[in-house]
């Protein structure tokens, strides 16, 4: 009995496993059909099993089951409907599973277990097994665990999986037509997909966690960096405050030292003394004790030179003579000494004869308290021998040469004092202007530029040495101060001119051009431009101090100037400086052996396409402006139309500057004022440049100056050709020079041949035309 029960249970377990495998491999997608009350079976088209339909199911009836001993002798009774008696089931039909017909159902013979879904319900809400009437199969039976008196029966109710692949819908009371839908996915594929989804989900969650941790770390690092940045900012601000304090202290110390030197130099070099002239007061210069001492020494040298000249004249009188002349002089002197009374008697007789009415015997002869009427003569100076004369003459010559050397030393010392006096006068004016400036208390402009000292003052601007607190560098701040009494149109014109200069200058970037860093407004009547700082004087100041410059150093300066002009002519659009002069050439190291930089683009001209014509040039709209000694003749032409200019204006300026460096004076209009130059038309008459004999200058340099100072602008060399001039090129070896000369000769010969060919073609064409006309 127990064995049969176990066999039945095992067959039911296999049937449940088969249903579970089919349900896991194929998912039915049909809606649940409505059932009658108390009916627990499904139609053949239901999705109860995806592996097989009800027709394929083996009808297991109680007659196949092993009956207990108490029921063995009971006979089967056929009911009226053709079914079995109590404890039996209706015969299997193709319409569906059998229904129990006795009062005791087969489920009463098994222990009911809580059903569990054979597959995982993911996402969609599926009905629980208790709510639907689906059979739930128990796990594999074990002999030791099942009781002998109660046999569990598998529930005939199976769950509906039709709602797994769609969102839940409200239960309708109407009946729905169910349709079986199958999928090609197997259970293994679904499990793999679920595993992959779970792993991807886990990876995504891990990635999210990792990103969150990274974000948290970055937020922490950002907070740390912000804190560090704030610390650095505070540290930088403290450093800037310390730098400002130190720079102010240094500037104050330098100001005190400068004023102390000026006070000392006032006594040594001189000072301005205010004197009253009529109803006005004038400041006149008074030299110091150094110049007075030099003047006294020069007077002493002059007096000693005059004494030497007098002694030389006396020495000439005592020069020893030859033997014959000496004998004649000695004889004449002895004869006059032997007859001393002859002259006196004759004189007395002449006097007696000429005088009438005199007392008899009275003598009117001249005498010197003696009876003899003779003249007294000084004793004759003893003559020098040849040796004595040579010694005295040599002594006088040596004294004269020593005085000449001392006079030359005094001249050098005087020139040195004059240079120091020029510096002293310049420093006195600078200190006076600095005391009068409103920026003398070290203000910070634009929260960045600390003004330290005044460098110079012009007509409407002041140039201050400043320190850039942001870039940590020295700069030059040019403060443009407008007059409060100006009219608005004049102020607008000045600001327009300054902005035009700024717009031209800010685009320039060359090592030989002063850089423009910034421009900003200070108040309603002033603004500031920030320039590159050059620690040194300009070329004009150096020429005033040293007069001339050696050719090699002057050539170096001209090379750098031409390099800057080449850059100005290669940019688009090109720029004409127009105000090139020694005052606008800065010596960065204070001497002529270093680098130079060009500044002041206030009068610059932009050669844009609208205003500039390559054939004729551009109109000079600012005639009368500029420095006349350095402008070419075409700038002084007066007519109905304005004159035409080009970059050759700067070429003329280069020639004048080079000439002034070599010879210490300007080639045209030297020692003339600008008004005199205009009145006398000095530049318009400057048709040819003249060179002095000293100092000696090479012919190449003279040729370079001539090419720059050509009177007609058509004959004058342009900037690009000037940069390729052989005088500015590096030295070439001898064979290179010979080859270059040969090339030049060949080019000249080719040009001559071309000209001859053109002439011959012209003459042949003319004669052929004449012949044709005569034949016709």
Primary descriptors:
single chain; 776 residues; alpha+beta; Phosphorylase Kinase, domain 1; Transferase(Phosphotransferase), domain 1; six-stranded antiparallel beta sheet; 44% helix
Describe the structure.
This is non-specific serine/threonine protein kinase. It is found in: Nucleus. Its EC number is 2.7.11.1. This protein is of the alpha+beta class. Among the domains are: 1-184, no CATH class; 440-532, Phosphorylase Kinase, domain 1 (2-Layer Sandwich), CATH 3.30.200.20; 539-731, Transferase(Phosphotransferase) domain 1 (Transferase(Phosphotransferase), domain 1, Orthogonal Bundle); 735-766. Helix content is 44%, strand content 9%. The chain has helices at residues 2-25, 187-268, 289-317, 323-338, 340-354, 386-436, 488-505, 539-546, 551-570, 648-663, 674-680, 699-708, 719-723, 734-775, and strands at 270-277, 280-287, 444-445, 449-457, 461-468, 473-481, 516-523, 526-532, 575-576, 585-587, 596-598, 605-606, 618-619, 644-645. The strands form five sheets. A six-stranded antiparallel sheet has the order 3-4-5-6-8-7. A hairpin with a 4-residue loop joins strand 5 (461-468) and strand 6 (473-481). Helix 3 (289-317) packs antiparallel against helix 6 and helix 10 (648-663) packs antiparallel against helix 12 (699-708). The termini are far apart. Residues 25-60, 70-101, 113-138, 140-157, 323-328, 330-368 and 762-776 have low confidence and may be disordered.
């Amino acid at each position: 009995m127990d064995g049969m029960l176990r066999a039945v249970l095992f067959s039911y377990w296999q049937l449940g496993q088969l249903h579970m495998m089919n349900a896991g491999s194929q998912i039915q997608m049909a809606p649940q059909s409505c059932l009658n009350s108390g009916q627990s079976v499904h139609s053949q088209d239901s999705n109860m099993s995806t592996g097989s339909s009800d027709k394929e199911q083996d009808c297991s009836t109680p007659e196949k089951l092993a009956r207990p001993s108490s029921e063995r002798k009971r006979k089967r009774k056929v009911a009226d409907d053709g079914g079995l008696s109590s404890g039996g089931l209706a015969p299997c039909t193709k319409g569906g599973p059998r229904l129990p017909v006795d009062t005791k159902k087969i489920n009463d013979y098994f222990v009911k277990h809580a059903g569990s879904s054979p597959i995982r319900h993911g996402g969609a809400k599926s009905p629980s097994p208790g709510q639907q009437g689906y059979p739930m199969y128990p796990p594999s039976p074990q002999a030791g665990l099942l009781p002998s008196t109660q046999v569990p029966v598998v529930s005939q109710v199976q769950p509906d999986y039709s709602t797994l692949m769609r969102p839940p819908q409200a239960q309708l009371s109407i009946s729905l037509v169910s349709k079986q839908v199958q999928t090609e996915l197997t259970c293994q594929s679904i499990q793999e997909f679920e595993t992959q989804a779970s792993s991807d989900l886990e990876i995504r969650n891990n990635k999210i966690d990792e990103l969150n941790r990274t974000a948290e770390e970055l937020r922490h690092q950002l907070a740390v960096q912000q804190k560090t940045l704030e610390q650095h900012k505070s540290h930088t601000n403290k450093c800037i405050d310390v730098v400002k304090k130190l720079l102010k202290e240094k500037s104050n110390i330098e100001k005190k030292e400068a004023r102390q030197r000026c006070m000392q130099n006032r006594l040594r070099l001189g000072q301005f003394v205010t004197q009253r002239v009529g109803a006005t007061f004038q400041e006149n210069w008074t030299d110091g004790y150094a110049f007075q001492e030099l003047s006294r020494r020069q007077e002493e040298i002059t007096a000693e030179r005059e004494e030497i000249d007098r002694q030389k004249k006396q020495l000439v009188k005592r020069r020893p003579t030859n033997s014959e002349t000496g004998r004649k002089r000695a004889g004449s002197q002895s004869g006059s000494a032997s007859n001393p009374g002859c002259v006196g008697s004759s004189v007395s007789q002449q006097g007696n004869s000429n005088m009438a009415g005199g007392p008899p015997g009275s003598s009117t002869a001249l005498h010197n308290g003696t009876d003899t009427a003779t003249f007294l003569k000084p004793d004759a100076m003893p003559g020098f021998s040849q040796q004595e004369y040579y010694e005295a003459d040599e002594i006088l010559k040596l004294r004269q040469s020593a005085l000449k050397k001392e006079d030359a030393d005094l001249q050098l010392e005087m020139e040195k004092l004059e240079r120091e006096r020029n510096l002293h006068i310049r420093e006195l004016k600078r200190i006076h202007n600095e005391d009068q400036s409103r920026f003398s208390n070290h203000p910070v402009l634009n929260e960045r530029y600390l003004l330290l000292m005044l460098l110079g003052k012009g007509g409407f601007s002041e140039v201050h040495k400043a320190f850039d607190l942001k870039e940590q560098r020295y700069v030059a701040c040019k403060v443009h101060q407008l007059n409060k009494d100006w009219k608005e149109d004049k102020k607008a014109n000045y600001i327009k001119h300054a902005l035009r200069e700024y717009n031209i200058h800010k685009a320039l970037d060359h090592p030989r051009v002063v850089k423009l860093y910034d421009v900003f407004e200070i108040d309603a009547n002033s603004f500031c431009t920030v320039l590159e700082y050059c620690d040194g004087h300009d070329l004009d100041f150096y020429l005033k101090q040293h007069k001339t410059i050696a050719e090699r150093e002057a050539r170096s300066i001209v090379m750098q100037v031409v390099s800057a002009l080449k850059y100005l002519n290669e940019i688009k659009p090109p720029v004409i400086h127009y105000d090139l002069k020694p005052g606008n050439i800065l010596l960065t190291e204070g001497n002529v052996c270093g680098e130079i930089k060009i500044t002041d683009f206030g009068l610059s001209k932009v050669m844009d396409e609208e205003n500039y014509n390559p054939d004729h040039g551009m109109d000079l709209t600012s005639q009368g402006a500029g420095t006349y000694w350095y402008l070419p003749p075409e700038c002084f032409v007066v007519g109905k139309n304005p004159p035409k200019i080009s970059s050759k204006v700067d070429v003329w300026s280069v020639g004048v500057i080079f000439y002034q460096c070599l010879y210490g004076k300007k080639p045209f209009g030297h020692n003339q004022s600008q008004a005199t130059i205009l009145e006398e038309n000095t530049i318009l008459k400057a048709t040819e440049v003249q060179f002095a004999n000293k100092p000696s200058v090479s012919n190449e340099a003279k040729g370079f100056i001539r090419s720059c100072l050509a009177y007609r602008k058509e004959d004058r060399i342009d900037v690009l050709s000037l940069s390729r001039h052989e005088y500015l090129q590096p030295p070439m070896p001898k064979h290179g020079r010979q080859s270059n000369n040969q090339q030049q000769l060949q080019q000249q010969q080719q040009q001559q041949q071309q000209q001859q060919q053109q002439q011959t073609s012209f003459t042949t064409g003319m004669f052929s035309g004449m012949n044709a006309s005569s034949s016709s």
